[in-house]
Amino acid sequence: MNLQKWDDVNWELVQKRVFRYQRRIYEASKRGDKNVVKALQIRLISSIDSKLLAIEQATNNLNDVSVNLNSEKKLKILQRLKFTKTKQAPISKINSDINYIKKQKIENEAKNNLCLLALEPEWEGLFLPNCYGYRPEKTKHDAIAAVNSYLKHNESEKELYSLTFKLNVNDIFYSIDPEIFLNKMNTTLKVQEHLRSLLQLSFKKKEITKIGIRHKSSLLGKAKDKLISFLLTLIVNDLLEFLLKITTFYNPQVNSNEPLNLHYIPISYGSNIVIIGNNLKQLEKFKTQILHWITTQLKIEFKEDNLKIKSLFEGFEFLGHSFILIKQKSHRKFKYFPSRKSQQTFLLDIREIIQKNKASSSYQLINNLKPKILAWGKYYRYSDCRIIFRKMSHYILQKLRAWAFRINKKSGRKVVKEKYFPSNKKYYFEGVCYHDNWILNGKKKQADGKTKENCLINLAWIKQRNWVQVDNLRSIYDEDQTYWRVRNLLVKQKNKNFKPIIIST
Q1: DSSP string, 433-455
Q2: pLDDT value at residue 141
Q3: CA-based nearest residue to 104, from 79, 86, 83
Q4: Can you tell me the distance from the alpha carbon of 251 to that of 230, in angstroms, rounded to the nearest whole number?
Q5: CA 20 to 30 Å from 171, out of 276, 362, 404, 502?
Q6: Residues 159-196, buried b or exposed e (16+ Cβ, 10 A)?
Q7: What is the CA radius of gyration of the chain?
Q8: How far apart are CA 11 and CA 19, in angstroms?
Q9: Cα(281)–Cα(370) distance, integer angstroms
Q10: What is the pLDDT of residues 88-131, one digit of tens each?
Q11: Under the phi-then-psi rule, with left for phi > 0, alpha for psi from -120 to 50, and beta for the rest, what region is 288?
């Protein structure tokens, strides 16, 4: 490819060519043809298209980089983009040339993106259906929906129990030898050497986050976090394979979208794992075997108290949701809703934002609160959330009223109420009209003299919906792309941007 300017790149064609390689890697992986997989991976990471895409993703992800990369600089990075040992920048360079640091960061980010482009399709053909964590187009809601569908199908069981636990990411990435990952992946030499240098750098550092490892002077970026998360998924997939060996009723040929008639079913997202079964004694045995596997295979300290077995009448927590069976006269009903811990954390965050904005205008307070409320409501709207959303909305209103009356002590309460919570207004949200006299409103004068107005939404306006669950046996690298287009369209329709409209009457 004779490329003169970066702006001349046809990105649609580049993505098609890269995806063509990835689909072939995925199909060879499903066939078990490791030699073909490696050969295609070598061709993929050496191709101009994949390097172009990796650099473009790196520059988009690292939008905090102040160095202005023009077309010429990007082409220079493209020419020297090769898999070499990843090193920290020398201290002299760090102190003297900040541009050097940021350019190196982009190069390393591009290398990590290349690794992901080559490794993801291979392991998509090998991951188990109920392993959801950090996989393309498979989200937390899909894992939650899988638990939901299984429990609803088995509501009639006399007894149901759950075994839940969470692997400590800090312990895993601080204790495991990087060679364990490299031996399991058995990938090409170039990718293997890059991963070895990456892991050796990362595992020496103690500053570890929930999904990966970060350190202040690191040249590694967001793609590194994705790689670490990808490695975590490998560990969890190994654990699921072990669990399915000891649960003898598993049938991998069954379509996973249909309710499985299993005595035990393990489901995972990231390091969160739940096993649901109908035999308490058998789950106790699994608990002992899981503890032994973690301490011998992962070689990390794991307390038995972290493995919790509960009856479904007591309920269990998974990904911020509480799952429980409720007796209602002659029949039983299964429910899941935002957990008490997530509700408390949400209210504490709201309180913290309000306290930090004691001297701010209502307009600024609304801008700070709205993203938090919308994000929380958007995540939990697919559960039995109606009653809890009303309760949370009431608590938020109490805090907002206290804020308004505290900063306007000299004014009368009616005056303050009408100033911040005006009456006789209509609010349109997601196509529904609401009349509410207790919605926080804000105004701001712009430079042109016009007044801009905003309002804080009521959490109770966010209506409950059903999630469009993914077909577990499908992958984005399948030939049937129509399925993914239709599903993504349905998900987008259910996740439209929240834009409340105020209309005075």
Answers
A1: EEE-S---EEEEE-TTS-EEEEE
A2: 92
A3: 86
A4: 26
A5: 276
A6: ebbbbbbbbbbebbbeebebebbbeebebbebbbebbb
A7: 26
A8: 12
A9: 48
A10: 555 444 444 555 666 777 888 888 888 889 999 999 888 888 88
A11: alpha
Q: Tell me if 230 sits within 8 A of 118, measured CB to CB.
A: no
Q: Are strands 441-445 and 264-269 parallel, antiparallel or unpaired?
A: unpaired
Task: Give the residues across from 222 on adjacent strands.
Answer: none
- Helix, coil or strand: residue 65: coil
454 CB-near residues (< 8 Å, 6+ apart): 363, 366, 367, 370, 441, 442, 444, 502
Share of the chain above pLDDT 90, in %: 26
Residue 276 · residue 162 · CB < 8 Å:
yes
Burial of 489 (0-12, 13-18, 19+ CB in 10 A): exposed
The dihedrals phi and psi of 420, each to the nearest 5 degrees, come to -100, -25
Task: Select from 350, 348, 382, 341 the least CA-distant residue to 368.
Answer: 350
Beta strands, E only, 339-455: 425-429, 432-435, 441-445, 451-455
Using pLDDT thresholds of 50, 70 and 90, give the confidence band for residue 473: confident
Q: What distance in Å separates the CA atoms of residue 346 and residue 352, rounded to the nearest whole number?
A: 10
**Residue whose C-alpha is closest to residue 112's, from 39, 12, 212, 249:** 212
Tell me how far apart the alpha carbons of residues 68 and 281 are, in angstroms, rounded to a whole number: 63
Per the listing, tokens 């409340």 go with 500
Place of tokens 């990843």: 86
Backbone angles phi, psi at 159, to 5 degrees: -135, 140
| 334 class by beta-carbon count within 10 Å (0-12 exposed, 13-18 middle, 19+ buried) | middle
CA dihedral 179, 181, 183, 184 (to 10 degrees): 160
Is residue 384 within 8 Å of residue 337, measured between CB atoms?
yes
Q: How far is CA 207 from the centre of its chain?
A: 20
Encode burial over 14-44: b for 16+ CB neighbours within 10 A, e otherwise. beebbbebbbbbbbbbbeeeeeebbebbbeb
In whole angstroms, what separates CA 483 from the centre of its chain? 22
Look at residue 271 in the predicted model and tell me its pLDDT: 85
Share of the chain above pLDDT 70, in %: 82
**Threshold 0.85, pTM exceeds:** no
